[in-house]
Write a structure and sequence with these properties.
Blueprint: H1 2-47, H2 50-63, H3 73-86, H4 90-118, H5 124-128, H6 135-155, H7 157-164, H8 168-171, H9 173-192, H10 197-221, H11 236-261, H12 263-270, H13 276-297, H14 300-309, H15 313-339, H16 341-349, H17 357-383, H18 387-410, H19 415-441
Helix pairs in contact: 1-9, 1-13, 2-6, 3-4, 3-7, 3-11, 4-6, 4-11, 6-10, 9-10, 11-18, 13-15, 13-17, 14-17, 15-17, 17-19, 18-19
Amino acid sequence: MISKLFIASRRLHERDQKYVKNVALSLVLQGFSFCGTIFITPLALGFLDQERFGIWLVVSSCFNWISVFNIGLGCGLRNKLAESIAHGDNHSSRKIVSTTYFFVGIIAIGCLITFLILYPFVGWSNLMNVDISMQSEIKYSVLVCAMAFILRLLLSIMMNILEADQNVGLIKIFPFLSNIAVIVSLIIARVFFQSSLLVLCIVILIPEIIVYITLNLVFFRKRYQAISPKLSEIDLPLGKVLIGMGFKFFIIQITMIIIYSTDNIIISQLFNPALVTPYNISFQYMGFAASFFFLLLSPSLAAFSEANIKNDDKWIIYTIKRLIFIWLFFCLGLLILVLFSPFAYHVWIGDRVIIPMTLTVLMAIHAAVQSWNNIFGSYVSGTGKLNVSIIIGIIISTLNIPLSIFLARDAGFGLNGVILGSILCISIISVVIPIQSYLIITRKARWIWNM
């Protein structure tokens, strides 16, 4: 009995150690990445006018949809690979990695062919709600964005591999190095090139792709050489297994992207692309704080999954309480950011863009609600009981667009109405998912709550 208690205590300690290690590394790298992001926005605004910068934000947010086109293969790889790594089975791991790259590669090629067929027939200036004279500039910019985001779909698999190996902290190397490369490129562009939306797309996306390719090569030649993909290890039947495991995550990803990526399009269509800029700057400002809180949660999904399998309810309850306590301090930090926002905006972007205080307050509320949801969302995802999340996701993604349009245009809230619509929608998650978490922990979950 004593030996069993000792082993359980040791496992608890090891889990917390790994958790803290990943959080610490993530915080350091995210801190450096954050510093880089601070410079990117004013550099880009200094290179383009507000309208063109708004168009860039709309285009890039649209192509973020491509990230879910792997139909859950990344999440399926993460779960299946974590199991094979735990058993030290390099042969199975290589098969999983090779199969995932093969299927995602097929999807990427399919996306590119589909885009190239449809893209000449789209009136891009009408879609962005700008003058027809910008049609050609937007057209070529969209082409660059499409090719870059489709390629990133394939290159991002490495992040799932790192997550499966419980090296979440190393994932932050990607944005850290990407930001450095983009800053250097923007500085060079401002010196040697004329202001252009196409140039901005190139100097932001191409350096990022180069970083992703380089890191993939480095990781596969060093840390993950034993499981690097090979054509001979592709297992077609395994693809169905991987898709099946990740399909629920795929549905949830789609619903979340609809909620968070359609705001820019709504603003561009209802008002003007220029208004996308203040909206996104205020979103980024509060997003900096939210991203640091999310870092604390990133390693928790794998940790919650392990604790759930071992019925370690004590650790789960303790960790959730600890995260709620941190969340309260996080909310206090958001209040401080709101109070200092006029000064922060002035230092950050100068007087080029005017951002209303009410918009900043609503962004702070959105960040607080989203972070609360992430606490319980991480636990539920770790248990794999995702049916409730899928149903809620479908409901709120259906409501989000018409509600945001109604509040922004018909109710007269303007930009504030767009983010207010998102807040009201995700507030549903804030109630339902904590209830499901309680039912699962207390073994009272039945029917859909336990699926």
